[in-house]
Amino acid sequence: MKFTINRQAFIKALNDVSRAISSKTTIPILTNLKLDLQEDQLVLTGSNADISIQITLTAEDTTNELTIESTGGITLPATFFINIVKHLPAANMTLSIEGLQALITSGSASFKINGQPSSAYPKLPELTETKSLKLSAAQLIELIAQTKISASTQESRPILTGIHLSLSGNQIKAVTTDSHRLSQRIITLVGAESVDEASVIIPAKAFNELQSLLEGQNVVEVKLSANQAVFTFGNTTFYSRLLEGNYPETDRLIPSEANTEIEIDAGVLSGAIDRASLLSHESRNNVVLLTIKDQQAELSGNSQEVGQVKEALSADKISGDDLEISFNPDYVRDALRVLQGKTVELKFTTNLRPFIIIPEGETDNKQLQLVTPVRTF
């Protein structure tokens, strides 16, 4: 096995593959990176058993400057190998294998590192009975960004650490909840044929890594099987295991009517919450209070140790009943951030029921953030 490659192109591919490699694994070989050199391409694979990333560098792509002398395969310690490649002196590098030892040369520098046979590396999942669809990378990025914030980080309820995807007709619905807040995003596949109905739960951690890889991509092909989801785009294939179990029924949590409504610029509200948080973060319960009275709104925060803050909100519109409601400011600020600076509507039923935050004019809950209030008495 021997090849020469452009170092910068190689580094980018190594960085992307390394997203799937963890030093904390019960399978030692998964701390390695797999290299499979074929007649016309180099295939890199990284995995942590939950997610796997495979990137193909072709000789046909001139930016790779890939020259293949002899085929073969090996796995090399990922951290050492990637650091070596990053610190090599010349624009190109050559890697050759003798037995289970890799010789890496570039300019006047040379390294030898020990590897393991590629045959010992776990095989990637083979999908059977898949359902597939295509969507734009921009749509998938938005879907992930607007829902991952509400996924739980507590392993006590593993099912809630995932993003629940439901496919029906030409729509994809994504929902997350950690039982304190909920995010929902529904997108319509433009120009796509009707897709098969499906319901899967993909770990939010996997989606977080996928989102980083999607920047600059155009179209993503998605394949779903009984226990795996596979995303293919550009020269990358991304595998994620699915979470097993039934996701909670979330539609019933979303209020269908509102007794009090506020329409306000997201940036204005976010700034006021930032200031209220300066004190609320110093208190034990991290709560701010929204008071609506006589068509006026005020936000306040209180810390017995530090003091108090009050700020009148400059809302575009206030309607409905008077209300006092307490909530975690971080949850609302996260919701405002993913709605990307638009004018938003906050809709309340009572001070003890969850309230929703939607973009102005939203009528069918396609972009929705729900927050559960905090009981302060």
Question: Mind explaining what this structure looks like?
Answer:
It comes from Fructobacillus papyrifericola. InterPro entries: DNA_clamp_sf, DNA_polIII_beta, DNA_polIII_beta_C, DNA_polIII_beta_cen, DNA_polIII_beta_N. It is found in: Cytoplasm. With 377 residues, the protein is an alpha+beta fold. The protein has three domains: 119 residues, Roll (DNA Polymerase III, Chain A, domain 2), CATH 3.10.150; 111 residues, DNA Polymerase III, subunit A, domain 2 (DNA Polymerase III, Chain A, domain 2, Roll), CATH 3.10.150; 118 residues, Proliferating Cell Nuclear Antigen, CATH 3.70.10.10. It is 18% helix and 43% strand. It has six helices and 26 strands. Strands 14-11-12-13-26-25-24-18-22 form a nine-stranded antiparallel β-sheet. It has an eight-stranded antiparallel β-sheet with strand order 6-2-3-4-17-16-15-10. Helix 1 runs antiparallel to helix 2, helix 3 crosses helix 4 and helix 5 runs antiparallel to helix 6. The longest helix is centred in the C-terminal third of the chain and has 15 residues.
- The CATH topology name of the largest domain reads DNA Polymerase III, Chain A, domain 2
Oligomer: single chain
Taken together, the total number of domains comes to 3
Unreliable stretches (pLDDT < 50, length at least 5) are: none
Query: What's the CATH H-level superfamily name of the largest domain?
Result: DNA Polymerase III, subunit A, domain 2
**What integer is the average pLDDT?**
93
Terminus-to-terminus distance: 70 Å
Broad structural category: alpha+beta
Count of helical regions: 6
Q: Can you count the beta strands?
A: 26
Gyration radius, in Å: 25 Å
Share in β-strands: 35-45%
Subcellular location: Cytoplasm
GO molecular function: DNA-directed DNA polymerase activity
Organism: Fructobacillus papyrifericola
Pfam families: DNA_pol3_beta, DNA_pol3_beta_2, DNA_pol3_beta_3
